């Protein structure tokens, strides 16, 4: 019996962010070609350390050194898939958490089949939009590209199914973000439509989720904290920006300056 | 008998931009490693949707889903060429327009030979600087890298020849931009020398050309509209910027805020 | 007998920067996936021209055309290594200087073995942080990722050893930068801790080193000038920025506007 979504507490987000800045997790990012720089800058701004190590052998070596691993299939090719699989296996062997961002999974064959293989390898978390989460759970989807044709609430049943099936915390993000372990569901408000006019805000969120799942404590609350940190910095940046161009520096500044007071 | 270049009308640019924002074309970008993020942000700012799908099989699947395809050979490798060729063939089969940006074609073998093959596959438009257009047309060139050693007007005969030879609308861009179908030529003023100090303004223009060729209406005017939208946002941004760093956010903001009044 | 580090003279930096802007060197960058756009924008802002040509055959062709070559192993794969080796050999044959940035060399096998091969091919300069320079010199290191666990002064003996062994000017950078030919050592102050929260400042410095080694004159002083130009623009940008987001445009603007007066 599934409970209704519960609003995520701002004080939990503040505590998790404080923990993150103390522990400075090293996040191994195997992500798409488009968002590498933005992803690294987002991680640096919140107080984590990014590293992109992409050769299959090195990726496996590095997954054991890093505190968490991100796998994002946005510009997947077969060589990328080889490195990702090697890194996931090494992370699992070393007991390090890893996060999947199933970008545009659904209609495209290579990424869809590969993501269906990956979710059998115990991801700590999965972060996607409504159509990606639906597609990954086996439910139908209306996505045409990286933008979702579904709203996040309508994909909550798919997110719950996917969480139960994989053991991962599943975050389905959109105007509202929902973070579920299959039963309990946390709702995270915030963000702004302007964020959909900047490439990589969703992909960077998945990297931030990877940073937060490296922390001790309740994993579901840590994933919700990642969502809240990003949506809060996004809201503040939108108030300060003229458009998507000035949003980007303002967003990174706000991530860097964010504290418990802003998160309330 | 070739007519003199005619100034492109601002009201046509305004109409095309309005159409673009209503139809929100999905542009499949197979572009170079350096400009992926900027290209995506430019497309999002004007009101189009970017997607970079690079595996050969997926690129072919996606070319049939997208509204237009961009092929930019700036950091070409053989695996990229395979994906580009598959995508162009799929786009042609699905009746979707595609655009070529022949970055630094001339002295470098792989990209030159590949671009000469591609132009036989009915591109909707080709956008390059003077030395690239000369080289692609078989005329001699003085380019040494991505920057052109020729001015755009002097390459207009080469552009006309290339347009007649390929059936594409050819845009040769520089201080002035010339857009030709082989006979009629539209001249688009604007831009600023500061834009040459920011990487990817030309590459992003080609992506914007791809977004505009997905629109109904006169293709040559749509390509000229793409040039004018970019040069107008660039001029405004240069007035607001201290240098190339502050130009970038100002440029994206101006693309986002641009309206018919600004285009006049 | 090694002399103590000597403060690098601001007037030498100003002269070198003036020379750079007159000669506008074309820098061939074979660098990592994360920093390509930022690297290109930094080179454009200081008055150099970047070009990323990555196919092995084209990279070899282009290395002979460019004025200098940068090799950065941050996201090394075997295909990248093939292109880098071809480009280094072509640069050497054409008498063009090349620079190595040994990102995260130490614990990761492919990049470490490859960098140890490369340093036998007469680099003009090597730029790294303390743990990278230690690892490359065969001394032990404490680095875990791209951030150095050592301070730059403590790695000066390793830098001197590496310089004598390779014939390269070695720059070991951190809070203070030290530039050595194995005997004489120039100390370059400046920079700001905020620069460590922005991805690619070190990688872009290596590209700027490549631009400066293309200049005539004392190579060691030219490398020190590259360090000073970057640290000076960084300091100015930090005074103007709210955080790492606004640092980026301010940094590029300051590089563009930098003159002899600011460098003093």
Give a quick precis of the structure:
The structure is a homotrimer of 264-residue chains. The first copy, chain A, has eleven helices and nine strands. Chain A has helices at residues 10-23, 36-46, 56-65, 78-94, 109-118, 130-137, 156-166, 201-213, 219-240, 244-257, 260-263, and strands at 6-7, 26-30, 49-51, 68-72, 98-101, 125-128, 169-172, 177-180, 185-188.
Topology at a glance:
Three copies of one chain form a homotrimer.
Chain A: E1 6-7, H1 10-23, E2 26-30, H2 36-46, E3 49-51, H3 56-65, E4 68-72, H4 78-94, E5 98-101, H5 109-118, E6 125-128, H6 130-137, H7 156-166, E7 169-172, E8 177-180, E9 185-188, H8 201-213, H9 219-240, H10 244-257, H11 260-263
Parallel strand pairs in A: 1-9, 2-3, 2-4, 4-5, 5-6, 6-7
Antiparallel strand pairs in A: 7-8, 8-9
Largest interface: A-B, 35 and 32 residues
Poorly predicted regions of chain A are none
| Oligomer category | homotrimer
Could you say which structural class the secondary elements and strand pairing of chain A correspond to? Answer: alpha/beta
The helix count of chain A comes to 11
* Strand arrangement in the largest pleated sheet of chain A: 1-9-8-7-6-5-4-2-3
